[in-house]
Amino acid sequence: MNIMLFHSIYGLRPAVRAAADRLRAAGHEVWTPDLFDGRTFEDMEAAQAFREETGKDELLRKAVLAAAPYSERGLVYAGFSLGAAIAQTLALGDERARGLLLLHGTSDLAPNASVDGLPVQLHVAEPDAFETDDWLSAWYLQMGRAGADVEVYRYPGAGHLYTDPDLPDHDAEAAEATWRVALGFLDSL
User: Class assignment of domain 2-188?
Assistant: First the structure.
């Protein structure tokens, strides 16, 4: 598979590069665009301030430009938290998208969003302050109405960005379980 993997609000950190290497070792071609132009963060407040300063439209513009040269290949869009939200937006707007792998995040859907059986897999902590139960229920129903084929995996006790070993949220067991399931998902596409 050809995978466009977007980083979290913390930027293109070593965990994102390690995830890309893991995907490459499984035989996938992976791109990891840097939407923050080299900036990375250790602190959520600083990261959120930078995201607000940059703006959602600018981040989406950068993501579209990064994906455009490869979209004809039929991309699987993937991302971590903020990157998952961006991946979702791009996948729902790309009729050639082969799949959507969401790690730790989702996004609003456009009212007229429509996909024809797009395979979608979501991995989130349970509970997750950024992806509440009410929100996920509504999101799941909206994705289904849009035509997506959605699977959701919840990881009790894990923190929001539990796949990043350099963050306090890290949960090694949940991270390994996520990657096992995610690699199976990608192999099925």
Answer: alpha beta
